[in-house]
Design goal:
Layout: H1 9-39, H2 44-80, H3 90-117, H4 125-131, H5 134-148
Helix pairs in contact: 1-2, 1-3, 1-4, 2-3, 3-5
Length: about 150
């Protein structure tokens, strides 16, 4: 596929995949951090260490990677003809919907980390552990959509 990206297409695609890996690594880590942070709320020193870890993860890996994923992903989607009415891109629409939901999950997790930093827990440890699986399920669906292109 050439499109407006021309010879840079493969490089943009490679960078997109690399930053997806970084973002997913962060999304696998942050919910686990939230579980440990919530379990350690009774120990102020332990809770403070989790706040610091979560802030570093968010500032160094999680949010920057998500931004790059979106910028490169939008470029790739436009290159594929997403807004030009190119047929056969149903899989891409579904992928973008899942990525949008995953971005919302990212926002929720960051918000919950800030809530925990204030000492306010609102979700059970069991629910946090179950929500830890959301990025894995989303990733599996996205990979299937991109590779198989079922519609």
């Amino acid at each position: 596929m050439v499109g407006f990206l021309g010879a840079t297409y493969d490089w943009v695609k490679a960078a997109h995949v690399i930053f997806v890996i970084f973002w997913m690594a962060g999304l696998f880590m942050l919910p686990r951090y939230l579980v440990y942070h919530q379990e350690g709320l009774s120990d102020a020193a332990d809770a403070a260490r989790w706040v610091e870890r979560e802030n570093k993860l968010r500032a160094i890996i999680l949010t920057p990677a998500m931004i790059v994923v979106w910028v490169l992903g939008v470029a790739l989607a436009l290159n594929a003809g997403l807004v030009d009415g190119v047929p056969g891109l149903g899989w891409l629409h579904a992928k973008l919907a899942i990525v949008l939901l995953l971005s919302g999950y990212h926002g929720w997790a960051v918000g919950y980390a800030k809530k925990l930093a204030r000492g306010q827990a609102g979700v059970s440890n069991k629910a946090l552990r179950m929500m830890n699986e959301i990025p894995a399920l989303a990733t599996a669906l996205i990979v299937i959509l991109v590779i198989v292109k079922p519609f």
